[in-house]
Write a structure and sequence with these properties.
Helix content is 38%, strand content 31%. It is built from 18 helices and 24 strands.
Length: 542
């Protein structure tokens, strides 16, 4: 055997047919070691990362490639698989029947030619034969590696009884209910997005993850890389964006790789204004449902301990990072430094609550510190003070009989309600909680619930009597006509509303319209512990 070192993309291109042939013979389903992925990664992201691909030749035939990147630190050489940070999985490209011999030969060569070296090899799946063979090789050399592992859940779709599988998971996070409520807003559909729509994906990703994004998914170089992959038409590796659309608006996406029967969910995102509806879960359900029709064997949920992955998976693999080095003292210093960082990352990734705290709390506050205006600082200060101690109260009023004041109102469909309401997230929340919007011929609107009084700001929920209605976001000067409309067109008898104002003008106006005060709802925050008290005219209860 002999080896060659390739240090430029131009040198690598003549080897594409040999590279592809090896992976085709092996029936490789790891998209990150396909030539198209490596080529585009090197072109857009790898120019300054010390890429060095080792070509292994035997009897004048190329039998293997080692896709590496080599850097130097404190007089030591750090050898890694390329694509760290972008490639979830990595491996060597070698004919299966040559794998064990090649591993021994190449690692012996590297250790001899670079005596002060550290190997930091990420992305090796436990199911890959390389993982076991590398472990055996290191055992024979009496070199004990440090191995960091992260769970990799998957769904084995080729043996899945889809009906039973979906039936067991139909109530996950109220999925059926959420799908039904999303259909109230319009026509949801899942489809493969055009490569031209990638800008929508970047925008949606930034809208949710701008607080703390470690993927660099939307910086300029990465945008070019991920856009280029979508346009790779030849070869077994295909990059796609699967989108959940509400009418023509994308509200969730999954950037995926497909390779010889394996679907890898690489990066997901959704519009936070629609979070209540669980758009990511709805998208996963539909993609898993379609997987059998698309000849997919494995629906790979990718690395990580996010709870939603364990709602769907039927099995787990593990992705391993092998860390080992020579024994020189300078090398050992670097080794221990990398090892310490690895332990910290492993702890963070295994503890989802810690990860959520880092991404949501720390990330959100970091973004706030960098970008907040003076007004936003004042609002945030008041909010934090309010968590330590605050009081809120609302007054509930009831009208059993009102004055006749006719004005024509129409029930609004979702697109019209969106145009009229200033807050899309709140609009979606009203719809999700069962409210119906009504409006006049101009721009005013109000919300009606036929079953409950719901006041989220004081955590109050109360069932209504039959033939009743609760109205929200009403305007005082149109309240008389709103009540008349509900009685005439909806058969309502009793009408309830709430107000946060206790001034004499509001109270007098409500009394003139026939409203009587029925209860007060008081919420108090004391040292981050909220409590709500309901006081009626005759009783009080906690």
């Amino acid at each position: 055997m002999k080896v060659y070192h390739i240090r430029s993309l131009e040198q690598l291109k003549p080897y594409q047919k040999m590279w592809d042939h090896i992976l085709d013979i092996n029936q490789n389903d790891n998209p990150f070691i396909e030539f198209q992925w490596i080529e585009n990664w090197w072109k857009y992201l790898g120019r300054n990362r010390g890429v060095e691909i080792i070509v292994v030749e035997k009897a004048d035939n190329v039998i293997a490639f080692f896709p590496l990147q080599i850097t130097h630190m404190m007089k030591s050489t750090v050898i890694e698989f390329l694509g760290r940070g972008e490639a979830h999985y990595m491996d060597i490209v070698v004919y299966d029947d040559e794998r064990e011999q090649v591993i021994q030969y190449v690692f012996d060569e590297l250790m001899e030619s670079m005596p002060k070296c550290i190997f930091n090899l990420h992305g090796l799946l436990s199911s890959s034969p390389t993982t076991n063979m590398l472990s055996l090789y290191l055992a024979r050399r009496k070199c004990e590696p440090t191995i960091f592992s992260i769970v990799t859940p998957f769904v084995k779709t080729d043996t899945l009884n889809l009906e039973d599988y979906l039936k067991k998971r139909s109530k996950i996070h109220g999925l059926n209910r959420r799908e039904k409520r999303l259909r109230y807003l319009g026509h949801p559909k899942v489809m493969t997005s055009s490569p031209d729509e990638i800008e929508q994906v970047f925008t949606l990703h930034d809208k949710r993850w701008r607080k703390m994004d470690e993927t660099n998914f939307t910086d300029e170089e990465h945008q070019m890389f991920y856009s280029a992959l979508l346009n790779c038409e030849d070869g077994p590796m295909k990059a796609k964006v699967e989108g959940l659309y509400l009418d023509d608006q994308m509200i969730a996406f999954s950037y995926v790789f497909k390779c010889r029967g394996r679907h890898v969910g690489y990066l997901n995102g959704h519009d936070p204004d629609y979070s209540l509806y669980g758009p990511g879960t709805i998208l996963d359900k539909e993609l898993i449902t379609r997987s059998q029709n698309n000849d997919l064997r494995i629906y790979d949920l990718s690395i990580g301990y996010e709870p939603y992955k364990f709602d769907w998976n039927t099995g787990v693999d593990y992705t391993n990072n092998f860390l080992f080095s020579s024994n020189e003292w300078q090398t050992q210093m670097v080794f221990q430094l990398i090892k310490g960082k690895g332990y910290v990352k492993e702890i963070l990734k295994k503890n989802y609550k810690v990860l959520l705290f880092k991404n949501e709390f720390l990330g959100k506050n970091l973004h706030f510190f960098r970008n907040a205006s003076f007004r936003e600082w004042v609002k945030a200060f008041r909010s934090q003070v309010g968590k330590i101690y605050s009081k809120k109260s609302v007054e509930i009023y009831q009208q059993k009989q009102g004055t006749e004041d006719s004005l024509d109102y129409q029930m609004l469909i979702y697109p019209e309600a969106r145009k009229r309401h200033h807050d899309l997230k709140q609009t979606n929340k009203w719809f999700y909680n069962g409210f119906t919007p009504y409006g006049d011929a101009n721009v005013s609107m109000f919300w009606v619930h036929p079953n409950v009084i719901r006041v989220d700001e004081v955590d109050y929920l109360q069932e209504l009597p039959k033939n009743s209605a609760y109205i929200a976001e009403w305007q005082i000067h149109k309240l008389s006509s709103v009540c008349s409309f509900l009685r005439q067109d909806n058969g309502v008898q009793d009408i309830f509303l709430h107000t946060t104002k206790k001034d004499e003008v509001t109270t007098k106006h409500l009394q003139q319209l026939g409203f009587t005060h029925v209860s007060s709802i008081k919420k108090r925050n004391l040292l981050f512990k909220p409590s709500t008290q309901v006081l009626t005219n005759s009783t009080s209860k906690q």
